[in-house]
Amino acid sequence: MPIYTPTSVREATEIFAENPEAMLLAGGTDFMVEVNFNHRKPSSVINLARVNELKSWHLDTQTSVIRIGATVPFSQFESSEFEQLSPALSHAARTVGSPQIRNTASIGGNLGTCSPAGDSLPVLFALDAQIEIASLQGTRSLSIHDFMLGPKRNALSVGEIVAAITIPVASGFQDYAKVGVRNAMVISIASACFALQDNQCRIALGSVGPTIIRCNEAEKFLQDYITQSSPPDLETIREFSRLAAVAAQPIDDHRSTATYRRHAIEVLARRLAMRSFSL
Amino acid sequence: MSNEHYSLHINGTDHQVQDAWIGESLLYVLRERLGLPGAKGACEQGECGSCTVYLDGQPVCSCLVMAASVTECQIATVEGLRPDGGLTDVQESFLSEGAVQCGFCTPGLVMAVHHLLDTNPSPTELEVKEAISGNICRCTGYGRIFAAVEAVVVQRGNR
Ligand SMILES: Cc1cc2nc3c(=O)[nH]c(=O)nc-3n(C[C@H](O)[C@H](O)[C@H](O)COP(=O)(O)OP(=O)(O)OC[C@H]3O[C@@H](n4cnc5c(N)ncnc54)[C@H](O)[C@@H]3O)c2cc1C
Ligand code: FES
Ligand code: FES
């Protein structure tokens, strides 16, 4: 019952190739809940905490791209330095769990779990993030749209590790909002990320479908107004948020009802768009 | 590389852990193997904060930390706040302000509050609320806890 503690991605992929049954451990906030409740019984574990390459984020000023190591915990996105570069991811991170959870829960773990309620995911979908995946064979890069396949399903094969996530620096307004039963320590019932990136309207929804949903109709509708000189009026934004709600595919479950979720999406989309045009 | 036997650095001392199962949480190892029952276990899913300890100086839920994975970290528990066995100013204040009823949540809250006041000596009410948002107390209704935090801020000369 070994626990391996590699210090490089290369070493981690070698260990994973030799021990395909091993489980990857990052912050443990999803992993250990499953262990504590006997839903997961690891026979061997690859602990990613000592792989320095995975532990930090960097800004490439030439390309204006932020490259985030997989084990960066959500607490690091709360800094004002990061907030200036990526307000939506920073604000999404602030909504995760509690301070104790954010100190350990990582963005790579959010992708490993791939829950439709994962708070980083709508931001990554809105920004067309690229996911860098490492294995013994080398590195491949996948769009987040191809990475998340369904609820708790992603495109990783055995032996593959999420190494990094890349997103563009914000080039316009962006923000994230979620609805839950209270302000802290809550899994979202509905969430949305709205961004004006390179003058393009993007909106992605969380917790209202098997994967994160980009609202193409709503985006197209608002796009026509963004390229015009005068900003959209309130009526236009109402129509935009109605279209966003139509794109949602919510279900009834133990956390909420489909009807409430669709309503919440309309409200979140409207609020975010109004904020973006200072209405 | 096998870790049936490993050592943890807790409150400045090395502790040997023998014959452990790989999936044991730090909370379990502290309480059941090392005789350090300060961190409390209630939910074992990160929701209540009663198991809060510091990992390299940061508050975390010890129930969600795999013990065998933190052999290279500095771990601090509520027992280590005053190694002489006395009470810290935060603990005294919890007592004098009536912020302790059943006391189950208290060690976790004390850890969260010490970390807050070490990093932000004069927090606003909202900052206190955020800092303890991962700690559930089912007895006090939190009013006495906010009063206890405020009393320490004043005592330390920061308000
Ligand atoms: C009390 C509580 C509150 C929570 N609140 C929220 C919340 O508000 N919002 C939210 O989004 N989530 C929340 N979560 C869920 C969890 O914290 C997140 O999903 C977190 O991002 C998981 O990261 P981790 O580092 O802890 O991952 P781990 O638990 O270590 O791993 C999670 C999964 O991903 C795999 N994995 C980890 N790293 C990698 C990698 N680099 N490559 C491939 N696979 C990998 C693991 O094998 C495992 O299957 C909460 C959890 C708890 C316990
Ligand atoms: S026992 Fe760890 S948070 Fe509740
Ligand atoms: S005093 Fe009883 S739970 Fe807080």
UniProtKB/TrEMBL annotation, chain A:
Signal peptide interval: none
Alphabetized GO MF terms: FAD binding; oxidoreductase activity
Keyword Oxidoreductase: yes
Entry keyword Oxidoreductase: yes
Annotated ranges, domain FAD-binding PCMH-type: 1-172
Keywords for the protein's UniProt record, in alphabetical order: FAD, Flavoprotein, Oxidoreductase
A Pfam family matched in the record: FAD_binding_5
The protein, known as: Unannotated protein
Source organism phylogeny: unclassified sequences, metagenomes, ecological metagenomes
Automatic annotation (TrEMBL), chain B:
Keyword hit for Iron-sulfur: yes
Gene3D superfamilies the UniProt entry points to: 3.10.20.30, [2Fe-2S]-binding domain
Annotated TM spans: none
2Fe-2S ferredoxin-type domain sequence ranges: 4-81
UniProt keyword annotations, A-Z: 2Fe-2S, Iron, Iron-sulfur, Metal-binding, Oxidoreductase
GO MF annotation list: 2 iron, 2 sulfur cluster binding; metal ion binding; oxidoreductase activity
Protein name: Unannotated protein
